Automatic annotation (TrEMBL), chain A:
InterPro entries xrefs: DPM3 (IPR013174)
Role this protein plays: Stabilizer subunit of the dolichol-phosphate mannose (DPM) synthase complex; tethers catalytic subunit to the ER.
Gene Ontology CC: one annotated term: endoplasmic reticulum membrane
Protein name as annotated: Dolichol-phosphate mannosyltransferase subunit 3
Lineage: Eukaryota, Viridiplantae, Streptophyta, Embryophyta, Tracheophyta
TrEMBL record, chain B:
Protein name as it appears in the record: Dolichol phosphate-mannose biosynthesis regulatory protein
This protein's record includes keyword Transmembrane helix: yes
Gene Ontology molecular function, alphabetical: enzyme regulator activity
GO cellular component: endoplasmic reticulum membrane
Chief location of this protein within or outside the cell: endoplasmic reticulum
Amino acid sequence: MKHIIKIMSLLVSVSAFWISLLLTSIIPESYTLLILKWSTFLYQLPIYLIVSLGCYGLLLVGIGLMRFPTCPYESVLLQQDIVEAKEFLKENKVDVGSD
Amino acid sequence: MELADRAVGLLLSIISLSIFTYYTFWVIILPFVDSDNFVHKYFLPQEYAILLPVYAGVTLICFLSVFIGYVMLKSKKKKA
């Protein structure tokens, strides 16, 4: 329950900030062209943030894939362990399946 | 195997970075550039900056719902 309240409060604060930024551009100032460009940018800001969040997730996945360690030394040791275990179990007449 | 993983990871990172820079340019920098500048040739009209992500998100949600429904139906048919 606490997590939902945290997420909802974050969402409400971000949207309140966005609405306050929108309201500042309604106050009449001298440069209406600048106001038009600024309000165009503001209206696209939420979708821009969502798309950039998706890109950031993709980037993290790509970097994690690149840096994934394969541990070749431990892999060789594991194969040796498997062979030893199979021999031991075969001696004790346990069925270890096909080789 | 390790090289294939690193190649796929590098490809993903490059795709995400290029999408991010193109979209940043489109949404943030282009509204503040004069309308008769030459860079507007390389970008679609501004409405598509909203339409394309919304369309992609709706497609993703539809695909996820269809997939979940298909898996649920298949499991119910197997149990019956």
